[in-house]
């Protein structure tokens, strides 16, 4: 634990002094507090790497200290160990249910105390390493994805329109139509990218808005089957693949904003068509079971090669270096966040012999 900052919150002077000496000998920088409120203040001031806190404290007890610490974004992931003379199963269970990393009883065994602290510090370092790796991957993917997804269609728009307005360029009627179509397609691609980014940003803001969440979770998408059918046809037409869509839909109403339901379906279907070839079927099925409406979208495209859903992240795309059809990777993660927001589920599995099966589960409306 050499070099780590450890905060000890303990009202008994002798125990506080002993803990400071033990941890200092192990190489830690030790900060102490003699009551709960001072402990909270020092935690916010010093941002320790680990907190060791007694439960029976003046001003604020250990449970209250824990609650205060965990609502501070700067301390949310800080390992927190309870230290107490209370040894009943009920007390231990209360501490662990709250989410404490360990529950050490007095009188404590010094070797076990040191081992517990080192274990929690190691786990915290592992977490930071993983988060750092994810952040670096995110930075890399953003640097690759955003310039490409914004500049490629924009260059197409500028390039073709520039030719059309060049007085020295002789243009035929067919070329006008071809160039206009290229500009139209590039404009739609650019619009789609911007919309996905806006939707992703909006859902990130919604997650922390409890008031808005209460309102939205009261909304019901009536005749959701109609919206599902319409979006299926719209996305199929977008890719000039109207004959590739197969629908097996039955009537249902679900507990979700109609607008968000459309966003989810459009994102998932867009990926299904984007990563499959013309002539490959895209099937949309609906199954009503108990309290759920299960929508399964099946394609025969590239699939996910067994990648787990939890590995999906914004601005990261599967097999990006091998694919020509690039994107920000926002559609799938936005859909996942929205479905979770409304207490639904999204799962992905492989479709044999190729492609993917994406299952969306929504709560049925009463």
Q: Can you describe this structure?
A:
- By secondary structure, the protein is of the alpha/beta class.
- The protein folds into 3 domains: 5-108, Response regulator (Rossmann fold, 3-Layer(aba) Sandwich), CATH 3.40.50; 131-208, Helix Hairpins (Orthogonal Bundle); 212-363, Heat Shock Protein 90 (2-Layer Sandwich).
- The chain is built from 10 helices and 10 strands.
- The protein has helices at 13-25, 36-46, 62-70, 89-98, 110-165, 173-207, 210-216, 224-238, 258-274, 330-341; strands at residues 5-9, 29-33, 50-54, 80-84, 102-105, 245-248, 282-289, 292-298, 345-350, 356-363.
- The strands form 2 sheets. It has a 5-stranded parallel beta sheet, with helices on both faces.
- Strand 4, helix 4 (89-98) and strand 5 (102-105) form a beta-alpha-beta unit.
- Helix 5 runs antiparallel to helix 6 (173-207).
- The chain is elongated, with a radius of gyration of 28 Å.
- Residues 318-326 have low confidence and may be disordered.
Short key terms for the protein model shown above:
Heat Shock Protein 90, single chain, five-stranded mixed β-sheet, alpha/beta, Helix Hairpins, Rossmann fold, five-stranded parallel β-sheet, 366 residues
- Percent of residues in helices: 40-55%
Oligomer: single chain
CATH class placement of the largest domain = Alpha Beta
User: What would you say the CATH architecture of the largest domain is?
Assistant: 2-Layer Sandwich
CATH topology tier name of the largest domain: Heat Shock Protein 90
Radius of gyration, CA atoms, in whole angstroms: 28 Å
Distance between the termini: 56 Å
SS content category: alpha/beta
Percentage of β-strand residues: 15-25%
CATH superfamily of the largest domain: Histidine kinase-like ATPase, C-terminal domain
Helical element count?
Answer: 10
Care to count the β-strands? 10
Largest sheet: 5 strands, parallel
If you average the pLDDT, what whole number results?
84
Query: What overall form do the CA principal axes indicate?
Result: elongated
Low-confidence stretches: 318-326
In N-to-C order, the SSE pattern is: EHEHEHEHEHHHHEHEEHEE
How many domains? The number is 3
């Amino acid at each position: 634990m050499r070099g780590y900052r450890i905060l000890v919150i303990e009202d008994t002077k002798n125990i506080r002094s002993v803990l400071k000496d033990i941890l200092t000998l192990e190489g830690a920088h030790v900060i102490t507090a003699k009551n709960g409120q001072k402990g909270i203040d020092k935690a916010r001031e010093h941002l320790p790497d680990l907190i060791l806190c007694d439960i029976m404290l003046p001003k604020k007890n250990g449970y209250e200290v824990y609650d205060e610490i965990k609502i501070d974004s700067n301390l949310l992931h800080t390992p927190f160990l309870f230290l107490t003379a209370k040894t009943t199963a009920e007390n231990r269970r209360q501490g662990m249910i709250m989410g404490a990393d360990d529950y050490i009883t007095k009188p404590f065994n010094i070797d076990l105390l040191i081992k517990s602290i080192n274990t929690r510090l190691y786990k915290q370092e592992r977490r930071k390493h993983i988060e750092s790796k994810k952040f670096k991957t995110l930075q890399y993917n953003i640097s690759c994805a955003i310039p490409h997804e914004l500049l490629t269609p924009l260059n197409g728009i500028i390039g073709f329109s520039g030719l059309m307005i060049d007085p020295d360029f002789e243009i035929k009627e067919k070329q006008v139509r071809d160039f206009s179509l290229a500009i139209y397609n590039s404009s739609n691609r650019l619009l789609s990218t911007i919309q996905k980014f806006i939707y992703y940003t909006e859902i990130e803001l919604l997650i922390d808005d409890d008031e808005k969440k209460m309102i939205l979770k009261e909304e019901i998408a009536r005749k959701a089957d109609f919206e599902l059918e319409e979006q299926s046809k719209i996305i199929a037409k977008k890719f000039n693949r109207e004959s590739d869509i197969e629908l097996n839909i039955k009537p249902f109403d679900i507990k979700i904003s109609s607008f968000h339901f459309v966003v989810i379906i459009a994102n998932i279907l867009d990926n299904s068509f984007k990563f499959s070839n013309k002539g490959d079927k895209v099937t949309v099925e609906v199954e009503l079971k108990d309290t759920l409406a299960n929508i399964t979208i099946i394609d025969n495209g590239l699939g996910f090669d067994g990648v787990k859903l939890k590995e999906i992240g914004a601005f990261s795309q599967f097999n990006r270096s091998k694919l020509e059809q690039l994107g920000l990777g926002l559609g799938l993660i936005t859909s996942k966040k929205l479905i979770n927001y409304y207490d639904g589920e999204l799962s992905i599995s492989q479709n044999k012999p190729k492609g993917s099966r994406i299952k969306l589960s929504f709560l049925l409306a009463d």
